Amino acid sequence: MGEEFEELMKKYEKVTKDGEIVREEEDDEWEEFFRQEEYVKIPKERIAVLIGKKGQTKKEIERRTKTKIEVDSETGEVWITSTRETTDPLAVWKARDIVLAIGRGFSPERAFRLLNEGEYLEIVNLTDIIIGDEKKALPRVRGRIIGRKGRTRQIIEEMSGASVSVYGKTVAIIGNPIQIEIAKTAIEKLARGSPHGTVYRYLERRKKDLELEGSMYYENL
In sequence order, which ranges of the chain are alpha helices (DSSP H)? Predict the structure, then answer.
């Protein structure tokens, strides 16, 4: 898919008689066929983390995905667009998910895991799981997932191989589909009141299958 995308891009590149590529800033055909754009909104308190000191985090996302990111610091709105240097047809989506991951509490370093092939972001809304009074139940459910000094979250990460961030009313998970499924199931069990010991036994049982299932998954990419 990447090679086909690059070949199509070349059709809209102009070449001088010396063989040098000249890219025009305004090209209606390029805009129509190749420009991709994604829009997301993240909590305003996470904007500073997304931008980073002297804009370094935003620049690093742009550099590694070859996309352009525009941020409205007042509203938390973020626009991600492809550029003429974008060669990966999934780059805009990857940049979008990195932005979303940072918005849901991940550090930029952990969010960059999404650049790995076959790894994705899933966001679990705890309000979809909680039964009863959300305001009373949410702090308790968050506490069950995080655990004392973050120990439960750490165990979920170690046993599933996924990265987990508990932020606000959501739990964000980064990993391959198998890792995400294991971590998500553990989180849902805890949110619904399963004892921690029961959840840990589930994780231990699934960890034995994870290595085999994971290797098969990456072989089929």
Answer: 2-10, 28-34, 47-51, 56-65, 91-103, 108-111, 134-146, 151-160, 177-191, 196-219
